[in-house]
Write a structure and sequence with these properties.
CATH class: Alpha Beta
Structural class: alpha+beta
Radius of gyration: 15 Å
CATH superfamily: Gcn5-related N-acetyltransferase (GNAT)
Order of helices and strands: EEHHEEEHEHEE
Oligomer: single chain
Shape: globular
Helix content: 25-40%
Bound molecules: coenzyme A
């Protein structure tokens, strides 16, 4: 995906969503460490930039990374592997916009079904995904070892596919 998406928030602040680049990794990794109890390593993000099945997005404001997403696509399935927004930018619709871009990519690539895992107690993320039509389809016991928490599996069908 070479396209850049630019949006002005209600406040007039401009946000850009574009493919993640090598120069973004340090900022993404620093955010990841601040946000997650069991963060991905820097090497994991680097590996995603080399992974032909991976699409990696950043949301930026004035060239500063304020959100990111890692998605994997195999044939007609898309998996949201990572998605986060910097705490000081939450509640402004950044994740909603990232999700809109992900759906855009999914449509362009004829994806039929999208999956993700989310911590059972992560109300904000679960609400976000439900807003985009994701439904709970299962659980993985103790999936998050460090947090000692189960994962909820969520899926949604797109392009007129039936779940
Ligand atoms: C989950 C997360 C990505 C949401 O990002 P955001 O930019 O604040 O989300 P948005 O402002 O676009 O909100 C979209 C929807 O998410 C839900 N939501 C967001 N924050 C919420 C909160 N604190 N409590 C409940 N629901 C919330 C709401 O349904 C909201 O829609 P609404 O505004 O119409 O009510 C962000 O909280 C985050 O980065 N959390 C830490 C990382 C994480 O948990 N990632 C998901 C891993 S699966």
């Amino acid at each position: 995906m070479s396209t850049e998406f630019i949006k002005a928030l209600d406040s007039g602040v401009q946000i850009k969503i574009r493919p993640m680049q090598w120069e973004d990794i340090e900022q993404v990794y620093q955010l990841e460490k601040r946000i997650f109890v069991a963060p991905w390593s820097r090497a994991s993000f680097e590996a995603e930039l080399l992974n032909r099945y991976s699409y990696n997005l950043v949301a930026t404001n004035e060239n500063v990374v304020i959100g990111y997403a890692i998605i994997w696509m195999f044939v007609d399935e898309l998996h949201i592997a990572n998605l986060a927004v910097k705490d000081s930018w939450r509640g402004c619709g950044i994740a909603t916009w990232i999700m809109n871009v992900i759906f855009n990519i999914a449509h362009e690539n004829h994806i039929k079904i999208m999956h993700l895992e989310v911590r059972k107690s992560n109300e904000a993320a679960i609400n976000l995904y439900k807003k985009f039509g994701f439904e709970i389809v299962g659980y993985r016991k103790n999936y998050y070892e460090k947090e000692k928490e189960d994962a909820i599996l969520m899926s949604t069908c797109i392009n007129d596919t039936v779940l």
